[in-house]
Structures are given as C-alpha cells and as structure tokens.
Amino acid sequence: MKKYLIIKDFKRRKYVNKFEWKKKILKAFYHNHNLNLKFRQKIYFNILKLKKKTFLTRVKNICILTGKSHSIYKKFKLSRMSLRENLSVTFFTGMKKSSW
Questions:
Q1: Inter-axis angle of helices 37-49 and 3-31, to 10 degrees?
Q2: Phi, psi values for residue 64, rounded to 5°
Q3: Are residues 21 and 39 in the same domain?
Q4: Which residues of the chain have pLDDT under 70?
Q5: Could you report the per-residue pLDDT of 17-28, keeping only the tens digit for each?
Q6: Residue 54 sits in the same domain as residue 71
Q7: Are the beta carbons of 19 and 54 closer than 8 angstroms?
Q8: Number of domains into which the chain is organized
Q9: Same structural domain for residues 84 and 49?
Q10: N or C end of the chain: which has fewer CB within 10 A?
C-alpha cells in the first residue's frame, strides 16, 4: 500500500478545490466580451499567476486502497484488482463478477 501517494493525492485535491471557485470566476470574466479589453487582460494575467498546483489536470486518479494509478474506475476510485477483490466478498451490493 502506497500510503504516501494517497496522502499526497488528498492534499492535491484539497488544494485544487480551494481555488476552484476563484478560477471559475476569473474565467467567466475573461470570456465575457462585453467587458473592457484592458480589464479582461488584467484578468488573464491573474489567471496566469495562479500556481500549477491549482489546476485540475494535475490531479491524478489513484486507487484509494492500494495507491495504484493504472486502470482506475472513476465511479468507485478503485483499481481493477481492488474492485475485483471487493466484489468477490460482496462489498458492493447489486454488482456481480462476470467472466467471458
């Protein structure tokens, strides 16, 4: 279990959520063409001043149980292997393990 990756991801998501409303407001002002051009340019420079940590694309989907970053199901935030193990012990109701 990669606990440090889970903690790092939690902190990153928390930081992104903290600045999400500010970015949305700035982008709404920037895309409003009824406003003065100089004001929109100032808004654009404020957007550029935001740190890279505030962007949603920096957040990586990782499994909340194992810390793996590949083959993650977004709905459960679990990796393929963790989901399969939890389905076999009926951790999720209403789902079945299927084989082809």
A1: 170
A2: -80, -15
A3: yes
A4: 1, 90, 96-100
A5: 888 888 888 889
A6: no
A7: yes
A8: 2
A9: no
A10: C
> What token pair was written down for 51?
């740190």
Residue numbers of the domain that contains 48: 1-60
Query: What per-residue confidence (pLDDT) applies to 50?
Result: 81
- pTM confidence score: 0.59
Asked whether residue 4 falls in the same domain as residue 42, the answer is yes
Are 11 and 40 part of one and the same domain? yes
Please give the Cα distance from 79 to 61 (Å, whole number). Answer: 10
**Which of 57, 55, 69 is CA-nearest to residue 15?**
55
1, 41: one domain? yes
Q: Within this chain, do residues 71 and 28 fall inside the same structural domain, yes or no?
A: no
Share of residues in the chain with pLDDT > 70 (%): 92
Burial class from Cβ neighbours inside 10 Å (0-12, 13-18, 19+) for residue 86 reads middle
- Spatial distance between the Cα atoms of 79 and 84, rounded to a whole number of angstroms: 9
Amino acid letter, residue 12: R
Question: What pLDDT does 100 receive?
Answer: 58
